[in-house]
Amino acid sequence: MTDATLLPTTLVGSYPQPDWLVNREMLSKMVPRVRAPQIWRIQEPLLEQAQDDATIVAIHEMERAGLDIITDGEIRRESYSNRFANSLEGIDQTRAGKAPGRGELSKVNFPVPLVIGPIRRPGPVEVRDLSFLRAHTGRKVKITLPGPFTMSEQAENAYYPDRKALALALADAVNAEIRDLFAAGADVVQLDEPWMEARAGNAKDYGVEVLDRALEGITGTTALHMCFGYAHLVRNKPAAYSFLAELEQSRIDQISIETAQPKIDLAVLKELPSKTIILGAIDLGDLNIETPETVARRIDAALKFVPPNRIVVATDCGMKYLPREVAFGKLKAMVEGARIVRASL
Question: Which domains are present in the chain?
């Protein structure tokens, strides 16, 4: 294991799934909110075994690239959110709802979970994933969950009095899952909340309240990922977050932001003085592999505003839409870039 006490490296969440496991052409056209079993090339009863094997490959590639904190690559997921969201009681299992997308797709309705009753988590959803990951690496491990605010925005609400009430109910389900994940050996649990940026108005009204509800009583290291959307689908990204500094008042320990593709003004990091920054230093909108020196320059730019003991180096977002050889090359460059900066310190 790399002994990196400063500038440890990690992946935000997803790693590319192999072509033999998923229909990547089909996957590239959507980020499903409801279950999408049609993307899997291998069917039950062999699907779980195939997903396990692909997860082992992803873990070993992350280790070979030199990452300090390993994820399971989200290999078993059709999208970052739909697996957990659709496992909850209160979601109609026979009908889908409709809700608009984000950004350029905000006027288009997509199939989403339809909430028709009280949200409850019937049991652990990702504990087996975490235990499998823990069993196959000796390095620190991180696992990701969709955040309650994002899930509430990606649903049609036909039960709760308003969207905030739905988000708070989802926060209780997420809280129970986080507790089980730490009990199973997670070093970091990350909540994916891209829709706090996409729906900044609602996030400013109650986003921190919902987040803190999900983290109530949690003692392990927690992270929150904020992004502008997958680079594969969102090319023109704004140069500033609409909702970010507000998270300084939350219980979250680490905040993951993308800086490489959108080239945001890093001075905003001064507004998060108590948080560890998971610095997105790999541009996923560019299929060219960065040089380590390019990555080092991106890290150095953040060091003007955040001390090195509060930076984790990462990709801008999940890598699932990249070719595997490009994803691996970018991870290696990221590790080498962090090593350059670490040596200069």
Answer: 24-344 (3.20.20.210)
